[in-house]
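queue> holo job accepted (zinc ion)
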Amino acid sequence: MPEGPSVKRFQLLCTPFVGKAVNKVGGSTRQVDPGDLKMLTLWDAQVHGKNLFLAFGAPGDNSKSTSPEASEHGSTSQGKMASERSSFLPRQEGNESDGCDPQRCLQEEHEGDLPSLMDDVAGRPWEWLRFHFGLYGSIRASEFARAKNANKRGDWKDPIPRLVLYFDDGGFLVFYNCRIHRCSSPTAEPATDILSPEFDRERALDALCKATPVCHTLLDQSYFSGLGNRIKNEALYLAKIHPLSLGSLLTPSDLRSLLDHALQFSLEWLHSKLRGQRLRLQIYMKEKCPEGHEAKKGAFGPLDGLKRLTWWCPQCQPQVLPEDTGMPPVQCS
Ligand SMILES: [Zn+2]
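queue> job finished
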């Protein structure tokens, strides 16, 4: 599944279409009716963690629409995901769009000049779609993905888009292998978003120093939104930390180093994507580490959670065991 830097790049592919009207739709999705988007205008594109959010509203003078900064850096609003909404059709009088919903009122108070859900000219709130991408999920701008291999029967079948949005300027956006859901506002928790300038380091360090294997904590999206398996593997290697080391047995400087490497690697990955360059990986899916040592591979995850393939070098990343430290575990604050 695409990690934070990939989804950020998807957002940047969408932003040139902000302010443009959808004049034709296509795609195989049954999770939303693409026809509902026809004649609406794309008003915003935000990314939070591994999710992309697109806002649609009535066409018109959107003088209160999102600023370029807001689109570039993602939302700064504090909205939480609300329940799935019924449809894009106009709502009846007296429903929650009248401003009685306390969560919306609260959100408007905090958002200041940021676009409100109530701001489009037709008086209807923007409608948001949340895109969550599968393993080979992607977005293309004004081009379709082509088959890279023949299937088992020898056919060269191009991937089938889940959604295609054609805009009035002739360009189009194509969405592949993603789940699409309606929502009333984007989930915005910049404090946990690894690519946000507002990422809360102290909160992340508190999570890392628990008596839990650090490779499990790093994938916990409630602390490290956008951090996926590749970033986990690379950050652990760069910090020279064994994936199964308990956070409580690592020194504060080890934990800070792990966090720094995770954030730095995520940013570098994003920048290399924006330049169209391939990312140089040290350990992920490698047989040897850059020092030439044999790498090991195992599936690690919480007892009740998903196990993810993990690569590490036993020599560069020795496991810290309780008897090695000779000191009491780090005190989590
Ligand atoms: Zn090594």
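queue> The helical segments are 4-14, 68-73, 102-111, 201-208, 214-218, 229-238, 252-274, 322-325.
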